[in-house]
Amino acid sequence: MTAQHPDFDQLPLDKTGPRGNAWGLLGKDDQLGTLNYLTDEVVGQAARENFKTGTRLSLNWSMKGASYPKFARKNLELRLINKAPLKHAHDDEWSFNSQCSSQWDGFRHYAYQNEALYYMGRKAEEFAASDHPNSIHHVSAKGIAGRAVFIDWYSWALAQGLEIDAMSSYEIPFDQIAKTLEFQNMSLDFLRAGDIIVIRFGYLYQYENMDAAKREYLDKLYQTQKPDNIGLKPSEELLKFLWDTKIAAICGDARSLEVWPCKDLEWHLHEWLLAGWGMPIGELFYLEELAKTCKTLGRYTFFMSSSPMNVPGAVASPPNALAFF
């Protein structure tokens, strides 16, 4: 990556395009966006610093996780094929929405809503005509790998005595991200170019531990209404930090990274990150074992390896993500 990195205040780069866009920074046919920050040097340094104990764990929720209450997207349907009597063997066939469980949102997923323009100013008609533009298979070529910084907001919030309903539109302002890092004996200045941010909101913890009455209520509600969820409060301050720090990707354990529904559309993270910068957004990552491991080891950085699927034309992908310590 050789292009000079402009300051946040210099955005948009394409003055004819929507607010905040960075189109053209890395060429006319860029397919990787902020993943360009994951240079060999950056990833090599992350590996040298973080492979210490050999501890490793999955960051992937069950593909059958969102079963009750069920979300609107199609869940995994697995068909087992018994090949007897020809052979004592099995095949299987999978059918699912790529965002039904842990996922990376790619750059075909979300556009600037008023302009109907995706990353690099591309239009939906281009996706229908070709598997090439903005497809997540470009990301699969090298994956998403590097130093990850775990921000366990949920543990911080519980330590403050906050009452949290992760199934509501509970907003997390940027200053609480800074306070969580301080709680972990870190600071915002600790983060550097090419980092992958991983935030625990407590969403999957509460989903898996909710009582039967709430589970039944939400399952009925979600049949007619898109779920609310806890998440980051969109703000200029947050976006400026992500851009100026050169964060490569960001993910969390909630159904949406940003609070949903999004109330402040001026700073709508799905628009700015996916359509504006080409920054992958990860959602429904399973972070419970990660939280325990980080607390036990007393460290909140690790090496993340994520291998999105090589599916030309795809919008999103399961992350196939592992954390290494």
Automatic annotation (TrEMBL):
SUPFAM superfamilies: Putative cyclase
Molecular function per GO: arylformamidase activity
Organism superkingdom: Eukaryota
GO biological-process terms attached to the record: L-tryptophan catabolic process to kynurenine
InterPro entries hit by this protein: KFase/CYL, KFase_sf
PANTHER family per record: CYCLASE (PTHR34861:SF11), PTHR34861
Family in the record: Belongs to the Cyclase 1 superfamily.
Protein name per the record: Cyclase
Organism per entry: Gibberella fujikuroi (strain CBS 195.34 / IMI 58289 / NRRL A-6831)
